[in-house]
What does this fold into?
Amino acid sequence: MTIGQPDGTAVAPPGPAGAPAHTTAPGRRPGVPAGRSKVPEVAVLFWVVKILTTGMGETASDYLGRTLGPIPAGALGFAGFAVALVAQFRSTRYRAGTYWTAIVMVSVFGTMAADVVHVIAGVPYLVSTLAFAVALAVILFAWHATEGTLAIHSIRTRRREVFYWATVLATFALGTAVGDLTAGTLDLGYLPSGLVFGALILVPALSGRFLGLNAVAAFWGAYVLTRPLGASFADWMGVSTARGGLGWGTGPVTLALTVPIVLLVGYLAVSRRDTPREAADGA
It folds into this structure.
């Protein structure tokens, strides 16, 4: 799946008297230095790791909630989320380990946030799905209105990074609510839900490739759907047979998904295959 290609950043010639060159991307304020992009290039492995993290976050959240209780698990999830995000913001460039650790913790905490809204606050999944969808739309609107672009390869300033991670968190919460809505409220079950989302994710992928759908819209459409896709299959593997699952347990499934995540992220860190091109060229 090759959604969300580079946003066409162009390099302007040096200014007078040896002034440093600036880069200008579509929708970018003129004269703003580009800096280094802090998110990975989007290729097949990006989507593979992303889907694995969504499943792992779902089962890890469930396992911690049942083992520690909802309040201690929520506190632990928030602490991990905060530490990982601080490390990502403090980094001066894209680092695979730092970035994907933050994604994993967003997945875990985003799942907990969506579950708290339903389980503790008693909000129906349909209502939370609509609320998270509105929140995501507001974030994207504010991002575009402020910066003039939603392209992920323009994440080179602190403000854009804040918008990016707010969007990521909202997509995880929304995806969790949608997955639980189809599996539970609509009574599809986990495996049928996973198959439905597997078919739906092909829509932005194929539309972007063959029907001319804007690459940014295709990317975020697919990004949202990775969450219920991965979570539905992970739940199917982890929950009991009485609930329509395979009964493997959320702990073992979490471990089984963590291993390939660690191996793939390690490979990306060493090979630098997903390092933004301007950083790789300047290394």
Summary: The two ends are 27 Å apart (CA to CA). The beta strands are 10-11, 23-24.
